[in-house]
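Chain A, query sequence.
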Amino acid sequence: MISRPTTQQLIEAICIELDDKVAPAVTDPTVQVQLEMAIAVLKNVAVRSGNELAWMQEERDAIEQTARELVDAMPDAAPLREALQAYEDGLTNSLRVADAQQDYARASEVLSCAIEAAYGSGDPQHVAAVMELMDQRHANQQAVTGQFIAAGRT
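Chain A, predicted structure.
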């Protein structure tokens, strides 16, 4: 029994029950594959539920910092400056997922403009700075999606 379960722990407990009790009772191969796929999705949701708000906040902070540095280094990067201003003006810092996703979407627009500005500048340091942001985003996405699971082929 989990005394104070998190969403992640609840989902993980469901996956264990499905794996240990339901899966052995399923004999139809098509349903077995569907169950394996559902369990794989639930495991990814568990990881995401335990980390999503933190990842969005960490990415937003890194994007904002890098964007400020690029704006200072490239005062003519108007689209980046405008996107950064729109991000700052709309920032809620809310812990409600829907609000956090809106903040994240605005930060993503800043990231897009930062990438364009960095590559447009031709400066390898600017490009490296935005690539670091993309690496961070990719790492978070990989943590959620995990490895490829060939359901039904185990």
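The mean pLDDT is 91. The chain has five helices and no strands.
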